[in-house]
Specification:
Blueprint (H helix, E strand, L loop, with lengths): L1 E5 L3 H12 L3 E5 L3 H8 L10 H10 L3 E4 L2 H6 L3 E4 L14 H13 L4 E5 L7 H10 L6 E5 L9 H6 L4 E4 L3 H11 L9 E4 L1 H32 L3 H9 L20 H14 L5 H24 L8 E5 L14 H11 L3 E5 L4 H8 L4 E2 L3 H5 L4 E4 L11 H7 L4 E4 L6 H6 L3 E3 L7
Parallel strand pairs: 1-2, 1-4, 2-3, 4-5, 5-6, 7-8, 9-10, 9-12, 10-11, 12-13, 13-14
Helix pairs in contact: 1-3, 5-6, 9-10, 9-11, 9-12, 11-12, 12-13
């Protein structure tokens, strides 16, 4: 098929590349000329395992091209994906200005029947809005469908190439058949294409992400209760997860969720519920628990040092909101490091991929370490904030010899408390028994 993907951010770049990998001719459109020049050379602005190699291969095979000119991209495509950002507005709603601008441009460029695919995360009713905007500028026939993405950062390429399901919201049989044909190569193992009406598909993305956010906040609230009563949150988690009705994913206590999806999607669904006079207590609580989790971690640090951390140096392992990504949007590290800096502490930090984002955020306010061990050389306390694989089995003897005082605050429960104490560390974690 001839496809254009408008927006080369995280979602658009993965979608366009993976569609090209299946033999489609894909034009990726963006108004950032410098980014496009880098992409044509195979240099990508995000870290996502496997993506860079796929881009290079498909660019070389001329199945994947990049342009800033939307008009011919739309004219030469049968299917047009909208994958631009929907940032959070001040009131929590999704800001649709970029989606609406693209819809207007598509309306002016359209030259025959097209399927317009809403890939951006948008509130219920957006497809109707896009339809209205396009109709103002054309009499050509087209259909707007909703095709929400369920890509996990750090595993997005595999998620797209081997999806557990594809959700398509369509009110048109013609558009439905085209979308089913487009996704058929990705579902040869029998995983389903789930067809539904457009509004239900738009709702599905918010409902899924918000449910996972609720699970994370629930795990954190249980961990905090465990800590208060002397139970071990890890044992409780294992006991819960053995129940098939509950499952094991998204029940790890820690510093809460971050990134570009969960925080924004929970708030957007909250706004939708409020606007329609629906109940929203559970969503509101999940959001509050998530914000409080970072504050509790900071308070735990301050309690240990009697709120006197000025002139102390903290070594930080991990800045990205999760491993296998360079994304720091809404990352717990931002809240925690800003709190330390505001109280006069110094910070030495290491992350395998997120330094460019961090430098844009903090400039010279923190020290950027060359590696994990450099980050803790001469520090008074270590904080583990992101669970990168390389942090799971470090040389603890070396860590102890490098630190001024062997104190670790583990925001991801990576280490066994009893073993840490036997090694001579003063160890703090989330909801676990530390003897």
């Amino acid at each position: 098929m001839q496809i254009c993907v408008i927006g080369t951010g995280y979602v658009g770049l993965v979608v366009g590349t993976c569609l090209a990998e299946m033999g489609n001719n894909v034009i990726c459109v963006d108004n950032d000329i410098k980014k496009l020049e880098l992409l044509e050379k195979g240099i990508i602005p995000i870290y996502e395992p496997g993506l860079e190699d796929l881009i290079k291969v498909n660019v070389d095979e001329k199945r994947l091209t990049f342009t800033s000119d939307l008009d011919p991209a739309v004219k030469n495509s049968q299917v047009c994906f909208i994958a631009v950002g929907t940032p959070q507005s001040e009131d929590g709603a999704a800001d649709l200005q970029y989606v609406e601008a693209v819809a207007e441009s598509i309306g002016k460029a359209i030259n025959g029947y097209k399927v317009i695919v809403d890939k951006s995360t948008v509130p219920v009713g957006t497809a109707e809005r896009i339809t209205e905007i396009i109709k103002k500028h054309t009499d050509e026939d087209f259909d707007v469908v909703s095709n929400p993405e369920f890509l996990k950062q750090g595993a997005a390429v595999d998620d797209f190439l081997k999806p557990d399901r594809v959700v398509i919201g369509s009110n048109s049989q013609k558009a439905t058949e085209i979308m089913q044909e487009l996704y058929a190569p990705f579902l040869r193992t029998g995983n389903p294409v789930i067809m539904m009406d457009v509004k239900s598909a738009e709702m599905t993305k918010y409902a899924a992400n918000s449910f996972l956010a609720v699970k994370i906040s629930y795990a954190n609230e249980i961990a905090n209760i465990c800590e208060a009563v002397g139970a071990d949150a890890e044992m409780v988690r294992i006991g819960m997860c053995s129940d098939k009705r509950i499952g094991s994913q998204f029940l790890f206590p820690g510093l809460g969720y971050g990134g570009s999806c969960f925080p924004k999607d929970v708030k957007a669904l909250l706004k939708t519920a409020k606007d329609n006079n629906c109940g929203y207590k559970l969503l509101e609580s999940a959001d509050e628990v998530n914000k409080e989790q970072r504050v509790l971690f900071i308070n735990k640090i301050l309690a240990r040092f009697k709120a006197n951390i000025s002139n102390m140096t903290f070594g930080v392992w991990g800045l990205a909101f999760k491993p296998k990504t360079n994304d720091m949007r809404m990352a717990p590290s931002i809240t925690i490091i800003n709190a330390l800096l505001s109280l006069g502490a110094k910070v030495k930090a290491y992350d395998p991929k997120a330094f460019d984002f961090a430098r844009n955020l903090w400039g010279d306010s923190i020290i950027y370490a060359q590696n994990a061990y450099d980050a803790i050389d001469g520090v008074d306390c270590m904080l583990l904030l992101t669970e990168w694989n390389e942090f799971r089995r470090p040389d603890f003897d070396r860590i102890k010899s490098l630190m001024n005082t062997p104190i670790i605050f583990d925001g991801r429960n990576q280490y066994d408390p009893e073993r840490m104490n036997r090694r001579g560390f003063e160890y703090y974690c989330i909801g676990r028994l530390v003897k």
